[in-house]
Amino acid sequence: MAITNLSPSPSASELVSLQVASDLFEQSGCPVRPRTLKKYALDLGKEIVRKGRADYASWDDLLDVQYALYPG
Predict the structure, then answer these.
(1) Can you give the pLDDT at residue 2?
(2) What span, in angstroms and rounded, lies between the C-alpha atoms of 65 and 33?
(3) CA 50/CA 4 separation, integer angstroms
(4) What pLDDT sits at residue 10?
(5) How far is CA 57 from CA 2, 6, 8, 69, 71, in A?
(6) 24 in Cβ contact with 31 (< 8 Å)
(7) Among 4, 26, 50, 62, which is most exposed with the fewest C-beta within 10 angstroms?
(8) Phi, psi dihedrals of residue 58, rounded to the nearest 5°
(9) pTM for the structure as a whole
């Protein structure tokens, strides 16, 4: 029987930089700066991971942030 390690933190492969997310959201017609993404993510209780000079979050969490900013 295998045991699965359930972790509330996203794995490294699920993380996307806030800059990349910002660029993708702008292409989709919902421009938002990385700093704004970070602020709203933290306000919504989402986890932000700092690697070097860049901030990262899970893509699912960033989609929640985008929906909070652009509902509908």
Answers:
(1) 56
(2) 12
(3) 26
(4) 59
(5) 28, 18, 13, 16, 20
(6) no
(7) 4
(8) -70, 145
(9) 0.79
